[in-house]
């Protein structure tokens, strides 16, 4: 589905991602893990075209994303829920959802009904300002906004950050439901180990900009956790 090949990225003179190669298989949820500052968000931003690469390829189906401008990538069917959610606080829930629409490949101006079926709270709060929603509701709004393009691949960057435990559980259920009902492939940047184990099929661990391990979730043993994940 998505394959990253020998990717290098710099912030100015600072080499941040080093010869990174990693595969995200179709129909699976891969958790990208690692301590703070290892390059997880930078990698997601590179996939979306929000950061320039120095070298490398990002193969998504038949396209090398590295050659495409950022605005073309969402249209290929990649939805992004960025870190911190980035809801527009003064716009209504409906307006926040509409922001995703221009990237739809079919140019439809209609918010797909399944989004309100998945997240009834967004239907109930359509006219409310984004900033009036709770953290968990804002996260549902951010996921809903990423889904308005009918993506095939959904990227979520730490969706559980700063969210109450019962809502965290609900977000995990929603991700699995999206995969089952819509056949989505998911890339989940996640630092909470129990959540990653519950939701993910696979893991990829980064450390100081390099891939250190990847595999199925049952292969994420204590040694890897100690070496790369515990603080
Ligand atoms: N805009 C920027 N300019 C310069 N350096 C940056 C910039 N953004 C991130 N960095 C640096 O790049 C490295 C990787 O950061 P990144 O945010 O990708 O890590 P992360 O693994 O997502 O961390 P976190 O878990 O804290 O979100 C860090 O050393 C960070 O300080």
From TrEMBL:
This is Urea ABC transporter ATP-binding subunit UrtE. Pfam families: ABC_tran. The keyword Ribosomal protein does not apply. Coiled coil: none annotated. PROSITE patterns: ABC_TRANSPORTER_2 (PS50893). Gene3D superfamilies: P-loop containing nucleotide triphosphate hydrolases (3.40.50.300). It comes from Lamprobacter modestohalophilus. Residues 2-231 form the ABC transporter domain. Belongs to the ABC transporter superfamily. GO terms for biological process: L-amino acid transport. The lineage of its organism: Bacteria, Pseudomonadati, Pseudomonadota, Gammaproteobacteria, Chromatiales. The keyword ATP-binding applies. One of its GO terms (molecular function) is ATP binding. Keywords: Amino-acid transport, ATP-binding, Nucleotide-binding, Transport.
